## 1
Amino acid sequence: MIADNMVKLVAGSSAIRAMFEEGQKMAAKYGAENVYDFSLGNPSVEPPIEIKEAFIKVLNEEKPNLVHGYMNNQGYPDVRKRIADSVNAKFDTKFTENNIVMTVGAAGGLNVILKTLLNPGDEVMTFAPFFGEYRNYVNNFNGVLVEISPNTVDFQPNLAEFEERITDKTKAVIVNTPNNPTGVVYSEETIKKLAAILDAKSKEIGHPIYLISDEPYRELVYDGIEVPYITKYYNNTIVGYSFSKSLSLPGERLGYLVIPNELDYYNDVYQAACVANRILGFVNAPSLVQRAVSLCLDAKVDVEIYNRNRELLYNSLKDMGFECIKPQGAFYLFVKAKGGDDKAFSAQAKTHNLLIVPGSSFGCPGYCRLAYCVDYSTIERSLPAFKKLAEDYK
Ligand code: PLP
């Protein structure tokens, strides 16, 4: 007999994962080359070679007790220092190791910071479309996720509705740019307006509203587009970073939180985040990967491989008459569901062995997400199936 809360969570369990499993069954039935699985955001590009070399170097050259032992809950001090230095060099910031908490991926980081900040009933706002797991993460701490409706013109956040819906229960806001599922990068203008609203509203309600910037896709951007570093625009920003996508290491589970000195109640928040890391059961982020990644913080996956996929998929779908905006980052394309019903459209796509995720999973019905972190040849082979899908709606 399991907890009542878990019964609901299991029943509503991730549509994306369910689709991924369905894809594996279909591959066994029709042959892997005849199933076009765009369901899961699992990086298809190899980790940079420096990572493998760094793992080997750490194992060969560092003391086993250091590499495999317990450490401070916030991670190794030298690793945190190297990360702070690397962020400072890139973004002209002034962080130290005392601003960094190593986490078990972005997912671990988000759970740590939400545990740190939320009282039961506190509201956390986010902009649709958003990564659906935010619902679960906020629910873990008895918070209430307030979903701001999407702006489907350009998928920048709907700031007018946002401003109206802030209440004295608003504790935090989560933004994710480059965005999963749209691939949109929030512009500097958007960030400035968001910061101005948050400053004014924090004063009005008499407590800080923390801005949590969930940034696993920061490094995956195209056409030289800049992703603003949000701590520079709003003092009460906490950054959640991850190496899952930037170095193609999602199974290794490594990320970090940046908790700046300028944050209101910085000391309390930093200390509480360290304790949260421990008592959520993570204890600390995995040790070997911390040491290895810290040796190659400038390494990068080959983003051009995703860019080629993006160009082929976007241009082909547009030619076939699908409506979508060109992603600026991440590896997702958000396509308008023909016929208007995203679940029906996804089901129709499945009849052509195309696996795409309904936008309802991201708080944005009427669209579907395609994860193009697949082989280029998969996209090429999938195009006749997309063509048939378009014809179904003529
Ligand atoms: N946030 C967003 C927007 C994501 O898309 C993901 C994973 O897909 C995560 C967080 C979790 O990433 P991690 O593997 O770093 O926990």
Note: The pocket of pyridoxal-5'-phosphate is lined by residues 41, 105-107, 131, 176, 180, 214, 216, 242, 244, 250, 255 (CB under 6 Å).
## 2
Amino acid sequence: MTEAAYLPHPPSRRRLGPNGPAIGPVAWGMWRFAGATLDEATRLVEAALDAGVTLFDTADIYGVDGPGWGSAEALLGEVFAASPGLRDRLVLATKGGIVMGVPYDSSPAYLASAIDASLQRLGVERVDLWQVHRPDVLAHPQELARTLGNAVRSGKVGAVGVSNFTPGQIEALVHFLDVPLASSQPEFSALHLDPLEDGQFDQAMRHGLAVLAWSPLGGGRIARPETQREIALAAALDTVAEAHGVSRAVAAMSWIAAHPAHPIPIGGSQNPARIAELADVAKVRWTRTQWYAVLTAARGAPLP
Ligand code: NAP
């Protein structure tokens, strides 16, 4: 196969926002992190660093269905405290704006307090990326833009991003922001194709946003397919995985990264051996035919 037959590699490094830190083609997420011991947690963070992961994604709410609100951030804070210098080796991203029982609050006072609480739990003076976890439709985008701009100017936040926003909500926010929007974090995998089809990826390419793809294995369903559609998708991924000598999970994440927006899959495994595989994601090459074969299997219907 000639080089020209393959889709381009995702960039090995890109900036998070115009002047932000360099980030690589894969990220690692801590939704399922709370509840580990300090030793286990440290091993997981080191496994991700060893695999070349730069961006580490957490949120204030992670752990709420286990040890409690804030427990994933607090555990990462313990890891930082026990391993001096570790925090500076990673690009640290967190989120806020979900409030139990409300469910969303992007008012200026609440978001300012949420950022302070995250910094305290993490034991850091600043996070590199702070994201609005879910849109609060009762917050005017002009007011949210002012809040996010103030967070950056306070020095507590290196850059700002959003998660689970529609393209229209992102457009309205970008219109009012006086600091760059660095990222969006939609759910995206071969089992959840919305951002490919609703204009979000096109918008990200137009505005230069880093796209962080959450649940890149469909929360594990791609590794353990059950339905007919999932089994057909697994077979299409396995063809490429076998040709490259990688796991299906690696093939699934590389399929995401091969889109021209070069979405950054946030691997969610809490198993050190599976985290180590993140190093292989950017090595897999896709032909157009293979990429569209996975899309067709994922849709469960031929493309028009
Ligand atoms: P995922 O990578 O799609 O799924 C991870 C799950 O799949 C884990 O339970 C993992 O188990 C399992 N898995 C992975 N490889 C496997 C294999 N080969 N065989 C069997 N099981 C396998 O990602 P996710 O955890 O759902 O989400 C990833 C990250 O996205 C989160 O940590 C968070 O940072 C972010 N996220 C954001 C939002 C949002 O609203 N912004 C929502 C959800 C998630 P093991 O741990 O045993 O490997």
Note: Residues 29-32, 57, 133, 163-164, 185, 214-220, 223-224, 249, 266-271, 274 surround NAP (CB under 6 Å).
